[in-house]
Amino acid sequence: MAQAVTSNTTETLTLVVKQTPVEIKMPYNGAPVMLDMNTVFGFKGYNGTIVRLQMSKGVFSTSGNNTTLNIVPTGNIDIQLLNTVAPKTCANFMQYVNAGNYGAGFSGYGDGLIHRSVPGFIIQGGGFQLGRGAGGGFSGNYTNVPTFANVTNEYKTPNTRGTIAMAKVGGNPNSATSQWFINLGNNTNTLGPANNGGFTVFGNVIGNGMSVADAVANDTIVNLDSTLGQVQTQLPLANYTGGDGTISNITPAGSVTTMLKSADNYPRGQCYPNPEGLGFDAFGNLFILTSPSSANQFNATGAIYEIQPGGATGVFTSGLIAPRGLVFDGNGTMFITDGGYGGVVEVFQDGSGSVFVSDANLTNPQGIALASSGNLFVANFDNGSNGTIFEIDPAGNVTQFVNGLQSPAALAIDSNDNLFVASFNNGTITKITPEGNVSLFASGFNEPRALTMDGNNTLFVANYGNGTISKITPGGVVSVYLKAATKDPQGLALDSHGNLYASNGLAAELSNSAVATSALADFQYVVVGQPLQEFFATGLPTGVLTLSSTYGEPINNHISITPVHNQAGKIQVTLYAFNLQGKSVTTRVNVVVGLPNITTQPAAKSTVAKGGSLTLTAKVSAPAKITTKYQWLLNGKMVRNSTNPKLTVVSGAQTTTLMLSKVQSAAAGNYTLQATNLLGTTVSNAAQVTVSGS
Q1: Strand pairing partners for 259?
Q2: What is the DSSP letter of 363?
């Protein structure tokens, strides 16, 4: 079997600015203006929509005694849609993309699935999703993609290698819904007009995306029959080792089912030196505490590693001595227990830090938790029965909260400020109320060393002794959540989707319902060109206008610019656009707010008898502190006041109300009102005047 690609392919799309500067003029007290990113940014050499399939596979990786789940990106398949060739089919495809039916991209709720592979012919997807549970983790099966109405066949382009086309039901040319396939070979004759009216090609794979598609086709093809709830006879599996090709899945209830691989946007297989505590900040960034005491240490001091949701990873800060536990406050400040400093270190969002508390009683601080009051609780470990929980207020004052605990190693706190303490040596979990009342909550654990609590007050316990993860309901019911899937787990953290992470010598994700031993080729869709993936603006002054964008939302390609009522001015904004590799381009946006706003247009059509009278009126809203001048035009030429009885008598030519009397035939035509201030000019709709009896 050919070796599959195991890293991201080289970026083939060059982000460019299509318009600079961007000029926007906004009426005073007017409606918001939507700025379309398609007109501002694009990709060099390509027009129209580009859709990216972010491909990945899941395998186990072992280093010494450390085993972790690797969710390995296998590259991107970029597809340029042929909107002019197959407009209905492209619109149908984008309907599924925008609805998240093919996979929800960066929001992480469900991946698409390559469910059919025929080497040399096609790989096929769009029919199934990897299922997600209520918490965002996998539900234990995969599901059919919800479909919309059939799309009319638009066969025009041959099915050559590197094209993408719609799949359909035999004998019905107009039966295509959600499923598509990528042509691996030249299928011009096989899939031409003689075969069910021809299969509609609606896009081309660009860049080196076909190397990624070929890698999927080179994976082992397995007949899973109905093992996964669907009959799949040509399913591509990565790193297949025999058996039925399924994956062990431990549900939140502890039952074992068959499931496909877990996936999200975090990298896997990163090796971190002796990882200890884990934690997520409010932006979804994962922080890993590493200790220099490991035999495979990489540096002389403890460090904090950061993994961002987009995949970027690196050292966030260093200089720690013996970091153990971490917690974030509402301001994004990280508090870390560090025995080397004899207390708690605080690290700010920019990576700078200082010793928050150093106390002689904190000889071996380990677990840490934050109460709703803002007070910290720290577990001071003792191998005997003299372990202590200390309480630290925001000013750094340290007081003893509870004493006489045996080997307290980890803390967690629920929504009612009840504190839970893991006792490493005797395998128990103790509950301490806010008033300091101590009781046994659960027992029977194997060297519990890490705790984390979800939003439903469900407690997860990392058993260092046997590598399992236990789950405890708020009522104290204990179950095995994950069986022997980690090695020496030392830290636990939950992300916002309910995925559980454990540190065990490697930073590894444990989905809340799946662990992979071999995995399917799966993907997530991201629209990366026209519209772009993400953008934002800077340089906005306060009080003149507001700007809102959907940063990180791949489908929405607009920003909304809303003028603040009763304000006017000229603003220059810098607009940024990013591609998936973090490369950016910028352009200037010049915004003028406060042009005269014609709120009531003159009557569209009027008829006046020759010799009669007519009044045209418009209403205008304009900044009071800026002079506004008015001028009526007839067929684009300036109208002047006149009292000549041989001509039409005109008054109000430089006001918002134009009065005509003793109307003559020459007065017929299109009238417009021009309103001008120092910020610019606004012209009304045309008012067509007809003179009867001429």
Answers
A1: 247
A2: S
Specify whether the CB–CB gap between 494 and 455 falls below 8 A.
Answer: no
Q: Which residue has the tokens 């030196």?
A: 273
- Measured in whole angstroms, the distance separating CA 248 from the mean position of its chain's CA atoms is 28
Whole-number Å distance between alpha carbons of 81 and 91: 10
Which helix (H) or strand (E) segment holds residue 608: the answer is strand 605-609
pLDDT at 28: 85
> What is the three-state SS of 310-361?
CCCEEEEEEEECCEEEEEECCCCCEEEEEHHHCEEEEECCCCCEEEEEECCC
Give first-to-last CA distance, the chain, whole Å: 90
Q: What pLDDT, in 10s, does the model give residues 595-610?
A: 999 999 999 999 999 9
- CA proximity to 347, closest of 356, 358, 339: 356
Report which residue type is found at 565: H
- From the list 556, 561, 559, 579, the residue with the least C-alpha distance to 107 is 556
Closest by CA to 177, choosing from 150, 143, 145, is: 150
Query: Distance (Å, rounded) from C-alpha 130 to C-alpha 229?
Result: 12
pLDDT at 539 exceeding the cut of 80: no
Strands 687-692 and 605-609, sheet pairing: parallel
Residue 200's pLDDT is 97
| Per-residue confidence band for 492, with pLDDT thresholds at 50, 70 and 90 | confident
pLDDT of residue 488: 64
d(CA 539, CA 586): 13
Alpha-carbon span 504 to 494, nearest angstrom = 15
Give the phi and the psi of residue 90 in degrees, each rounded to 5: -65, -40
Q: CA 594, 617, 678 angle in degrees (round to 5)?
A: 25
DSSP class of residue 671 equals E
Q: Are 63 and 505 in contact (CB under 8 A)?
A: yes
Q: 3-class DSSP state for residue 403?
A: strand
| Among 577, 581, 677, 583, residue whose Cα is nearest residue 629 | 677
The SS3 assignment for 148 reads coil
Q: Is the dihedral of CA 339, 340, 344, 346 positive or negative?
A: negative
3-state DSSP assignment of residue 234 = coil
Measured from the Cβ of residue 149, the count of other Cβ atoms closer than 10 Å reads 8
Sheet containing 657-661: order of strands:
614-617, 657-661, 649-651
Which among 463, 464, 408, 462 has a CA at the least distance from the CA of 438?
A: 408
